[in-house]
Design goal:
Layout: E1 2-4, H1 5-15, H2 24-30, H3 32-50, E2 63-65, E3 86-96, E4 100-110, E5 116-120, E6 142-161, E7 175-181, E8 193-204, E9 215-226, E10 230-231, E11 236-237, H4 242-252, H5 257-264, H6 273-284, H7 290-293, E12 301-305, H8 311-321, E13 325-329, H9 335-338, E14 340-344, E15 351-355, H10 357-360, E16 365-369, H11 380-386, E17 389-394, E18 397-402, E19 406-411, H12 424-428, H13 432-435, E20 440-444, H14 450-463, H15 466-471, H16 473-490, H17 503-512, H18 520-533, E21 537-538, H19 540-558, H20 571-587, E22 592-593, H21 595-616, E23 618-622, E24 625-629, H22 639-657, E25 661-663, H23 664-674, H24 681-690, E26 695-696, E27 701-703
Parallel strand pairs: 1-2, 7-9, 12-19, 12-20, 13-16, 16-19, 21-22
Antiparallel strand pairs: 3-6, 3-8, 3-15, 4-5, 4-6, 6-7, 8-9, 10-11, 14-15, 17-18, 23-24, 25-27, 26-27
Helix pairs in contact: 2-3, 4-18, 5-6, 5-17, 6-20, 14-16, 19-20, 19-21, 20-21, 21-22, 22-23
Length: 707
């Protein structure tokens, strides 16, 4: 029977100081165990009185809920004064034992006088009767009647406190043992976030060498409330308060939601708008269809780049704004710590499962730093990343645990700095099986750039000079505008029309127009509401756009001698496009995915592929076998090979923007990116037009002919 503690307080307030129910909260606070047992006995007597014909052996157990005033912020706040009192704790379920039977009472027969006495075992402690209860006998030869034993289901779990700002930095999170009985058994699994309310009791610890008077505390649980996503057979529901919903809808009502969220994501990292956009999509995830067709909706992202690019700060910030997230470092992570470990229960001596980082991140986010330095085998991630389960078959245990989480990993190149001449797999030594499971792969290069270095310097100095930032925000704004004007002056010779700008340039421009971002709490509420309540569906136009792009990119990959992609183009890319498009619509709290969402996602994916491909070049077949050509600098090649590289670069651009018509300014920009050495570029374009490699389509517009 569920009892609301707030109802007891309201009942006491309504009855007044002299009423019959005025002392109910005080009695409950002083002796919660006696109070709950008394209420149970009263309810059982009422039940038997009103229903005499029904089973009289039914036991009514009172479960108390809404006990927020008994919450313990951290386990350090548990003191001796709380023993035998009701406390409420919120934490992660680390370990769940098997279900056993706990004997509550048993009869003992005296061999001398044949007298039987039922003995109750308080708090589950087995204390047999030593002397016959018959005063005329007082015999000491007693036999336990096991057939008369009354038992209940019993289970033991271990809860770890959640790592919050209240937990002191540098300290290990504390754990506490909890006992579940009766209907509470099997109510949670490893990885769940729960709020348990129960009575705190001391427990004598056993030592193998000698007995000591050392006691540990455990919690006899009275009620369990799930604080993470309530996952049922129909949908995924987040517990979002009315205030959080109002905040989310106010943010979504703004016209610049995407730039605002990008501005709010790790503001201490300058720039990187494209990467922040991809990380936001991973944070929101796609439409959940796991219960229907067992396909994942989580988006995995890999960050690869030179040291000092802020990858670790991005991961740690994502954990802060995620409703449920964990951060681990690959160097100090083992296979068992990442998946699941088998431990021995100290009470029952049975083997139990202890959840790892991926299982604890179920329905959340798991950030893995130093991904290239993981001591565990990458094959352990294959099942978790695609099937989103962790299968265990060892120690006599055969089971499968849920690991429905988005994995965001960061890796440094093997040789300290990213080598553009090698592929990503060679730079971080990842297999194709692992790399193909990532929906997005970003390459971060630390290349010198005068304009970006100036703006980065101003940004870092502003972060380290709080007094100046607080008193002279307007001055920084004017400087940012001045630097932006300088950047425009430096790049005005190769400026292209707005409709043909890259996605990264569009995001850079739109984010620059946002003055202030959102707080961490606002972003967390917005993400929690979107993940739990918004499930976008693909429109017909979006499906056609995804189909067109997928067929086109497959044709490009299938061309002879062309390997323009950094990772294999498989069916997983098609599923990734669907998830990313759904996440793009979910980011603005929309129920349908439109064509613009799909186009932005296609540009994002192609910029990821193009950045990797441009760094590794492309391969062509020559008379001497396979030759690798670096598309960053083709000035030393012959005119014929420069033309081949120019045409291949145009094909990559077509895949990015979905249009095969180029203006002359775009051709000039591409030629400068390749550092072509062909003399007068206008005469060179006319030469390509005369040989039908480029077709003139109006004033200063050229089209690449189809093969």
């Amino acid at each position: 029977m569920k009892v609301d503690y707030r109802f007891l307080k309201e009942l006491a307030e309504e009855s007044g100081s002299s009423g019959a129910f005025s002392e109910l909260p005080q009695l409950f606070n002083e002796s919660p165990n006696d109070f709950l047992n008394t209420v149970s006995i009263v309810m059982e007597s009422i039940y038997k009185k009103h229903y005499p014909d029904r089973d009289s052996s039914i036991k009514i157990v009172v479960r108390i809920y809404n006990t927020q005033e008994f919450n313990i912020p951290t386990l350090e706040d548990i003191k001796s004064s709380l023993i035998n009192k009701l406390v409420a704790i919120t934490g992660n379920v680390l370990r769940v034992s098997s279900i056993n039977l706990l004997v509550t009472s048993m009869k003992f027969f005296c061999v001398v006088c044949n007298n039987s006495t039922r003995v109750r075992f308080n708090n589950g402690k087995y204390e047999p009767l030593t002397i016959c209860a018959n005063p005329e006998c007082c015999g000491k030869n007693l036999i336990a009647d096991r057939a008369s034993a009354h038992s209940i289901f019993y289970q033991r779990i271990r809860i770890q406190e959640i790592d919050t700002e209240l937990v002191s930095a540098g300290k290990m999170p504390k754990t506490i043992e909890c006992e579940l009985q009766d209907d509470l058994v099997d109510c949670c699994v490893s990885g769940d976030i729960v709020e348990v309310s129960g009575i705190l009791y001391p427990e004598l610890t056993t030592d193998n060498t000698k007995s000591k008077g050392i006691f540990s505390s455990y919690l006899e649980v009275n009620s369990v409330v799930h604080k993470n996503c309530a996952y049922n057979a129909s949908s995924q529901i987040e517990e979002v308060e009315v205030g959080d919903e109002k905040v989310a809808k106010e943010i979504a009502s703004k016209c610049n939601v995407l730039p605002l969220l990008i501005k709010s994501l790790c503001p201490q990292i300058y720039g990187q708008e494209l990467i922040k956009f991809g990380l936001l999509l991973s944070l929101f995830g796609g439409t959940n269809t796991y219960t229907r067709n067992k396909t994942r909706s989580d988006i995995h992202t890999l960050l690869v780049g030179d040291p000092g690019m802020g990858k670790s700060q991005l991961l740690q910030y994502l954990v802060k704004i995620s409703p449920r997230g964990f951060y681990v470092c690959g160097k100090s992570t083992t296979t068992a710590g990442l998946t699941v470990a088998i431990c021995k229960d100290q009470v029952s001596n049975e083997q139990t499962l202890e959840a790892g980082a991926l299982v604890l991140s179920d329905l959340g986010l798991c950030c893995i730093d130093e991904f290239d330095k993981m001591s565990s085998d990458y094959s352990t991630l294959l099942e978790a990343m695609e099937q989103q389960t962790i299968s265990v078959a060892k120690g006599g245990m055969l089971c499968s645990l849920a690991a429905r989480c988005a994995i965001i990993a960061a890796a440094n190149p093997c040789y300290g700095k990213y080598n553009p001449e090698n592929s990503i797999m060679n730079n971080i030594r990842l297999s194709t099986a692992v790399l193909s499971r990532f929906d997005l792969v970003f390459v971060l290069l630390d290349n010198p750039d005068e304009v970006k270095d100036k703006k980065l310097t101003e940004h870092v100095l502003a972060l380290h000079n709080k007094r100046r930032r607080e008193s002279d925000e307007c001055g920084l704004m004017h400087k940012a505008k001045r630097l932006k004007a300088e950047e425009h002056r430096y790049t005005k010779t190769i400026t292209i029309p707005t409709e043909h700008k890259r996605l990264s340039d569009k995001l850079n421009q739109s984010v620059g127009e946002v003055e202030t971002g959102l707080s961490i709490e606002e972003v967390r509420k917005y993400v929690a509401y979107a993940r739990g309540n918004i499930n976008p569906k693909l429109s017909l136009e979006a499906c056609r756009e995804i189909k067109r792009f997928y067929i086109q990119i497959r044709e490009i990959e299938a061309e002879k001698g062309l390997h323009s992609t950094a990772f294999p183009i498989t069916t997983r890319l098609l599923e990734s496009l669907i998830r990313l498009s759904q996440a793009r619509a979910k980011l603005e709290l929309r129920d349908h995915v439109n064509k613009q969402d799909t186009q932005e996602v296609i540009e994002l994916v192609m910029e990821c592929i193009a950045s990797c491909s441009a760094n590794q070049g492309y391969c062509r077949m020559g008379s001497s076998g396979r030759q690798r050509i670096n598309l960053r600098d083709v000035s030393n090649l012959s005119r014929k090979k420069q033309t081949e590289c120019f045409i291949e670069k145009l094909r990559m651009e077509i895949a990015v923007k979905g249009n095969d018509v180029f203006e002359y300014k775009e051709l000039v920009k591409i030629g400068k990116e390749l550092k072509m050495n062909v003399g007068n570029f206008a005469d060179y374009i006319n030469e390509l037009n005369a040989t039908s490699l480029l077709l003139l389509k109006g004033a200063q517009k050229y089209k690449l002919p189809n093969d």
